[in-house]
Specification:
With 367 residues, this protein is of the alpha+beta class. The protein has four domains: 3-59; 62-181, E3 ubiquitin-protein ligase SopA (Pectate Lyase C-like, 3 Solenoid), CATH 2.160.20.80; 186-258, no CATH class; 317-366, no CATH class. 14% of the residues lie in helices and 15% in strands. It is built from four helices and 16 strands. A three-stranded antiparallel sheet has the order 7-8-9, with no helix packed on it. Helix 1 runs antiparallel to helix 2 (19-35). It starts with a helix and ends with a strand.
């Protein structure tokens, strides 16, 4: 009973008509205190304790060794299997595995190599991923939560249940093999993921990624430029000139007939896709696969338009083409999907069917 309740009870007792009435009031107050719960002070303390407990629970991190998982050494790892409570901690042989439609409820996958694993449609209630490498993992159609992934190693190519990346790249960056890079300046991903700017074998030259294109420029090193006597070498034979970074030291007269000096090296502008028609014309890899008579071409046709991509010598729309859905060569499986929309294989208006199902008339059906 707090002070306010005590004062109110005192006033009631003082105004009671008889001792019997006063006793009756005291007994009633005692019973009310016993069954009415704590007063405001106690209630406030209780709320603080509840908030503290809630905060503790929210800050708890999954511990993959404390989930009571059991050995599943004899179980097959694959799509649609039951791996409930299985101990798969520190497994390094699970990368690129298809676990779509599997039941992994409360399974332990701590410190495992789960790169490029497909969990699509899997049951992941309480599954532990602490310390695991989830680069390229696909969780679309699952019930995994952000709390489960908080202690794992996610990347820009880790796909959440809503189809969005777990670690989005910043403005001006692209996700290449799980790493956010600037394709305008990255030598290993110049202009597109995986496009490497090769090192020059000429000691006078170096190759750098400039505005998304591999550019050959001269080194700022006068001593290296004294190596001469070969076609296309930076300085002409017998020259004592020093190189200045970014300048062209060779001349077309040094190149073979039909070649042109570009950035210190000789190229045939009629068939070189990186110097097609002119030194600075680099045929985009997604729009053309060759340089023909100084023009970028895709197969026997001109380079593809902005909305299409050059795949296997033909211009296709990778947003809708089932044989190249989302990229060249990424064909949709006709058993589990019947169309390609926005670069993703679908069955009707939904995602592709799970293992064990067939796409029939736009619906996933189990046979």
């Amino acid at each position: 009973m707090d002070r306010e309740q005590f004062d109110r009870l005192s006033r009631l007792v003082a105004t009671a008509g008889s001792r019997r009435d006063a006793v009756r009031l005291l007994v009633a107050a005692a019973l009310a205190g016993a069954v009415g719960g704590p007063g405001p002070a106690e209630a406030h303390k209780g709320r603080r304790r509840d908030r503290a407990r809630s905060k503790t629970r929210a800050e708890q991190v999954f511990n993959c060794t404390d989930q009571g998982c059991v050995s599943c050494a004899n179980k097959t790892i694959g799509p649609g299997v039951n791996l409930t409570h299985c101990d798969l901690n520190r497994r390094l042989d699970l990368h690129d595995t298809n676990l779509g439609g599997s039941n992994l409820t409360k399974a332990c996958l701590g410190d495992a190599d789960l790169r490029n694993v497909s969990f699509r449609g899997a049951q992941l209630q309480g599954t532990c991923f602490c310390g695991s490498n989830l680069s390229g993992a696909d969780f679309r159609g699952t019930n995994v939560t952000s709390a489960q992934l908080a202690c794992a190693r996610v990347a820009c190519n880790t796909v959440l249940p809503n189809g969005k990346p777990a670690a989005p790249c910043g403005k001006g960056e692209s996700c290449c093999n799980g790493t956010c890079v600037n394709t305008r300046t990255d030598r290993n991903n110049c202009g597109a993921c995986g496009r490497l700017c090769e090192f020059s074998t000429n000691p006078c030259l170096e190759v750098d990624c400039i505005a998304g294109q591999c550019k050959t420029v001269t080194k700022d090193d006068g001593t290296a430029c004294q190596i001469s006597g070969e076609t296309g070498v930076c300085c002409a034979a017998g020259s004592s000139a020093t190189c200045v970074v970014g300048t062209i030291c060779c001349s077309s007269a040094q190149c073979d007939p039909g070649d042109t000096c570009c950035g210190g090296l000789c190229f045939n502008l009629q068939n070189d896709p990186e110097h097609c028609g002119s030194c600075d014309n680099d045929c985009p890899a997604t729009k053309a696969d060759a340089c023909t008579n100084g023009e970028c071409t895709c197969g026997d046709a001109p380079a593809c338009l902005q909305s299409t991509t050059c795949c296997a010598k033909a211009c296709v729309d990778t947003e809708t083409d089932t044989a190249n859905c989302g990229g060249c060569g990424k064909a949709c499986n006709p058993e589990v999907s019947d169309r390609c929309s926005f670069g993703e294989c679908l069955c009707g208006d939904d995602v592709a069917c799970n293992p064990g199902e067939l796409c029939f008339s736009g619906e996933c059906m189990r046979f």
